[in-house]
């Protein structure tokens, strides 16, 4: 891999010294808010303006109350540590500024009560496998040479009610947060593997299926909670299983690193990632066990092509072929709370939105059991951007006649 010159990749963001003259200028611009170790700002916009004038300082945020009110601190990493370590109550965030280089990181969360089927460690391990596959495609290296860069730090703030972890790869760096998000989206588009990270989320009328990976964090000037801190009003600090010190805090910060110790991945390299072939396997996050009751739980396996409803499976297989290609069911999920079957299809990629097969992105067929219709969605970025779903089509008459009524499902819950 050709390394990107650190001067063009990072600008001046890694300088650790701010000339006294600049500090005095900042005090004049933002007088009344400075201390010996940092500058304080009531708004993010004022803090960002100052940060642009003081490239040797980094930006942090602190919760002031549980309503979301924050103030912002601009300080060197070493000065921030001196402030942070003395706080008994910690509610701090790192501000990942728009054009600042940052590490690869993931924010995972879901409600435990809705997702008893999810294997938590498998979910975390699957992230590492996904990243490894992306690096192999970008860097064209043997797997053994990638191992030092696949080290990850897992910060946990889970409770009995909620699973919540941050996964940070300290040795993998991108030019900015937006490009980090693009890399992760590209990984999820390599195949239909995004289905391996699906969890249930309560909504007003039913359970929604969403990604356990929060993609909203890859936005402009994002506040990302740091090691040892909890949200105001909560007692769930991010922990890592060992005592916190300055070195460990720095290692877990998203924008802190030494250029010579990391792999630098630019935006153009992300386009090297190609769709995976259908033989690629990633551990599935759902338990591969039969339903404990008639229709009582989410049902899915990593290698099974069948659901609890074999007649519907057979019908789906009958509609995923044409003269060009014969498709197959990669896996199927049954969500009893919303009465939906989600079929992840391999090889067959016909999309009703574009009227042809996608070149690489896979499709999903969804069966709604309460209305007995099915429709198509897909993993193509343009189709996903408009949340495309095909017009619903009715299931065959013989399935309608032989299938249990909706009340049968409700009675079995």
From TrEMBL:
Domain C962R-like N-terminal AEP: 76-235
InterPro entries registered for this protein in UniProt: AEP_C962R (IPR056443), PRIMPOL (IPR044917)
Catalytic activities: DNA(n) + a 2'-deoxyribonucleoside 5'-triphosphate = DNA(n+1) + diphosphate; ssDNA + n NTP = ssDNA/pppN(pN)n-1 hybrid + (n-1) diphosphate
One example of a Gene Ontology biological process annotation: response to UV
Entry GO MF terms: chromatin binding; DNA-directed DNA polymerase activity
Domain of life the protein comes from: Eukaryota
Top-rank EC class of the record's enzyme: transferase
Enzyme Commission number(s) of this protein: 2.7.7.102
One annotated Gene Ontology cellular component of this protein: mitochondrial matrix
PANTHER family in the cross-refs: DNA-DIRECTED PRIMASE / POLYMERASE PROTEIN, DNA-DIRECTED PRIMASE_POLYMERASE PROTEIN
Name listed for the protein in its UniProt record: DNA-directed primase/polymerase protein
